[in-house]
Amino acid sequence: HRLIRRQRQMCIRDRYYTICDELVLLHKFKIWSNPKLYDTIIKHECWTWQTDILFSVKGLLIKLSNLQNKELEYTIQLQVKQRASQLYTNKNNSMVSPIRKQLLHDLKNFNDTDNENIIINRKLKQIKQEIRFVYLDLIKLSFDGCANSLDIFNINTPPLVYPVLSLGSGITSLIKMWKQARIDIIKTKTTEK
Predict the structure, then answer these.
(1) Residue 150 in contact with residue 161, Cβ under 8 Å?
(2) 74 and 123 in contact (C-beta within 8 Å)?
(3) For the whole model, what pTM was predicted?
């Protein structure tokens, strides 16, 4: 139920922001003119954008936590397999009890599948990449949130602050898109071979 509720809230927020944005655009084209209503709509647009930023940050932090948990899980799996392999190949195996020897043998056989280690390493690499993308999204949203806060709280700043924050957001988005495109190109090249 939570997911459905969250999706509904996002949909309502998106529609409300779109309506406010379109009304601002229509005002700029001089299709309607009411200064008091325009100021109210601008404030609503800013607050809607700010709530979207905050909910996006919350979603990204949850995603980051889940990814870090998966990364830890795969790292532990690899370490257990490596340790089992080391114990099995240890030269002092003659002093090990038969039960422990059988357990180490079973773990070694389970660990012999190098393909599984390769798969886990690929998953780890993919998770690390996703974590980098989440960090880039968080940085972008930080720039957006700071820029929007200037409007919401009517903060007087030097004229370059807002454009610099917007530029930081744009550059962060560009970096993410470039990295994603690079990964996609590499994937298509490896699948063609």
Answers:
(1) yes
(2) yes
(3) 0.81
